[in-house]
Design goal:
The protein is mainly alpha-helical. About 70% of the residues lie in helices and about 0% in strands. The chain has one domain: Hypothetical protein af1432 (Orthogonal Bundle).
Length: about 190
């Protein structure tokens, strides 16, 4: 089992008896990995992204224990130290730990996103939260237009929540040919036969 897989198992143990939070980080990790691959992340950045995706909500448990709440700001405040402790225990390198701490400490802050790992983590979390929170399409559309920057993330959000945008009419080929013929005529182009 590699270090990411050990972290995966450790997070399942951390949230034992809490399938809701386990399911959440599993889905965020899966979308993060998929978007990262689609965007061609290098191996080191993908490693950081996967680790951050697994522990991004680690501050929820601490926030609930300390304050009885787990809002985004509480997660950002309490998550980095808990993530550091777990990552250190599992033998992650210091530079990886520092970046993961930063991502965990900012994953509910949507301005000044620095780095593709940060952008992808935010997009993956939104994809999962849209569904888990049952948001309507209008809210999804408005926020997705502001949040999603990667081509892979945009494609996923459109196909997941707006499939009608990808449906072709039964006459799509004929329509495309007619558009081409109209363009040729407008340009005054004559094709010899």
């Amino acid at each position: 089992m590699n270090r990411i897989d050990r972290l995966y198992m450790e997070m399942i143990r951390y949230y034992q008896g809490d399938p809701k939070h386990i399911q959440h980080f599993v889905k965020v990790h899966s979308f993060s990995r998929l978007i990262g691959q689609g965007e061609g992340l290098d191996e080191d950045t993908m490693y950081i992204l996967e680790a951050a995706a697994l522990v991004h909500d680690i501050g929820i448990k601490v926030g609930m224990e300390k304050y009885g709440r787990s809002d985004g700001k509480t997660q950002e405040a309490e998550g980095p130290a808990a993530a550091r402790e777990m990552l250190t225990h599992l033998g992650f390198k210091e530079q990886v730990i520092r970046r993961v701490e930063y991502l965990v400490g900012h994953h509910h802050t949507y301005k000044d996103i620095d780095g593709l790992d940060y952008q992808i983590l935010v997009e993956a979390d939104f994809l999962v939260n849209y569904f888990e929170n049952g948001l309507d399409k209008e809210h999804i559309k408005k926020s997705a237009e502001k949040i999603f920057k990667t081509e892979t993330g945009k494609k996923i959000v459109k196909e997941m929540f707006f499939p009608e945008a990808f449906q072709k009419s039964e006459t799509w080929a004929q329509d495309a040919l007619q558009d081409l013929e109209d363009f040729i005529e407008e340009q005054g182009i004559y094709i010899r036969q």
